[in-house]
Design a protein that fits this description.
The protein is mainly alpha-helical. It is 67% helix and 7% strand. The chain is flat, with a radius of gyration of 21 Å.
Length: 112
């Protein structure tokens, strides 16, 4: 909740042109703030080691830092996906500008 509040309430947007940079800053801030929170949660609320058992399979031992690593990788991968998505879908970057320029000659050019 705290990281969401910081990301949404402390970064203000006053003009339409500020929306895209504000969203990028919110994504970065929330990722940086959530990483130590994940670390604290994984070490504070999980035992140092626990077992996972599936029927017919051997017992698998899991350490609390495995959970942190998996969650942190998901968090940072989400940040990377956000940047890549923004690059290929935002009008501020060249790929979208090229598609927009090619559409000036007609819709068929965009489809091709």
């Amino acid at each position: 909740l705290v990281t969401s509040f910081v990301g949404t309430h402390l970064i203000k947007v006053n003009e339409i042109s500020e929306i895209e940079p504000a969203l990028k800053r919110q994504l970065i801030v929330s990722t940086f703030l959530m990483t130590p929170v994940l670390f604290a949660l994984s070490y504070g609320f999980l035992p140092n080691e626990f077992n996972i058992a599936r029927p017919g399979e051997p017992i698998f031992s899991v350490r609390s830092y495995y959970v942190f690593i998996a969650a942190a990788l998901g968090l940072w991968t989400g940040l990377l996906i956000g940047f890549i998505t923004e690059y290929y879908t935002s009008h501020s970057y060249r790929p979208v500008q090229e598609v927009a320029e090619s559409s000036e000659t007609g819709a068929a050019t965009v489809i091709i």
